[in-house]
Amino acid sequence: MLDLIPDDPVIIAVVLILLSLVFFSYLLLRRTVLEFRDGMRGR
Asked: Taking the model in full, what pTM does it have?
């Protein structure tokens, strides 16, 4: 299992940045959809 983790810190940093971008884009899309849904209901 530990063989899958690369030793290069640059690769680890790139993977962490990509994961954080995916996570924050998910949060942004979720908030946008919820706000749009509430706006359509007239709140």
From this structure: 0.66
